[in-house]
Amino acid sequence: MPLEPWLEGVYDADRMRETDRWAIEDRGVPSLDLMEAAGGETAAAVGELAGSSRVSIVCGKGNNAGDGLVAARRLAETGYEVEVLLLWPAAELSGDAAANLERCPAPAREVAPDELGAALDGTGVIVDAIFGTGFSGAARAPADAAIEAINACDAPVLAADIASGVDASTGEVGGAAVRAAITVSFHAAKIGHWIAPGKECAGELRVVEIGIPEGAPAQPAAGLITTGVLERAPRRAPGSTKFSSGQVVVAGGSRGLTGAVCMASEAAIRAGAGYATAAVPEAVQDVVAIKLTEVMTRGCPGPAGSLGPEAADGILELAERAAAVALGPGLGRTDEALELARSLAPKVEAPLLIDADGLNAHAGKLASLAARKEPTVLTPHAGELARLLETDSDEISARRLHHAREASARSGAVVVLKGDDTVVVDGDRVAINRVSCPALATAGTGDVLSGVISALLARGMEPFAAACAGVLAHSRAGRVAAERVGAESVIATDVIEAVPAGLAVA
Description:
Rossmann fold; elongated; 7-stranded parallel β-sheet; alpha/beta; 11-stranded mixed β-sheet; UDP-N-acetylmuramoyl-L-alanine:D-glutamate ligase; about 40% helix; 2 domains; single chain; 19 helices
């Protein structure tokens, strides 16, 4: 499936392998030429990291080792003191790698894993050329111990193509993995560079051309969200009204949790919704109304300052006039509130975003959402997704893309798995947010994201695009807020104020 034009393609291992094969077999590019270019780009980046003239190249036995051996030759020819450390016997090197070992003037020796630490002592920089993009699973001997020795060394590490131990197709790390300061990726970025925990091993990512012609038939497996998606949001025309600009209903809130529904509602207005209504428990309506100036409120019946099943008819009446509904911010976890969320979700005949306790209401019941006729967007963090899939958050964190795909398949929804590497999955479509923003690690920013995405849905954006645009705008807004007040001082309302800057396309 071709990528949306506002996504910048990233590859998995299979598509990168197919692209290499196409360049070599169909377009006649010699594989040694590709390796020469890859190794040359690796060597060029070494000088920026080297703390001395001594360079250690740690090699496996496949083509990634060949890239390292080219780098070793290039560096030796320019005056560096280079040593090649082979983890497997030289006789086991692949064909192109073996050819480059013969051409390499730098000394090369086989080294046992328990000897690698001493061999690296005093080096100015390490080049990781153990595994390439074909790696998956957990590193085994001798590579596992070698990776640990590399990480224990004080010298900075440059990874050739991808940090060894990281699955290029998923970002999963099944065992030991190199922690690089710089990764030089060949031809295109890989999924594993951008999704945690692999993202945490990449360091600074640089993508370099190595001579693969344009026009490769293999389509990227996923895409990085670009500002082009923000241009897809419908704009207000001269004849627009507050109703035609998109109405959002935010259903949630409870005693002690009024802030969440207020922030989601205010973010929706700030993100371009023409009209927003907060459907909240009667007992807290006055509090919410005082907090919100531009947002309407509707008090709904429920027990002890919470929403319950008796609120369903009133919320559905509001939803009939809404262009999008957000369910869950501040809802709380009473049995009655969770029952309400479960009963509302299949009945809302508008695009529906479910967050927070709206998600917790569907723990183990994701399949119940698949029958919805209108689009559904789920915005869980790792803990919420773990409850939805009846697993634990550590498992989600270890296999983020896998579980986001699973949740999308079960629910038929667009799944926004939040994090510094937020992943958006809609069936076969995968988008990744590359705009890192640690300032968003504060209470309430998830509610802001829910409001922004809801507004974009209400404005008429296609759901996958709306989710991606909301994620990108939210991160950009977080960065603007951090510039204004400092990353450690950002609060969610700072992000709401910065939403216009986050959505700006100029």
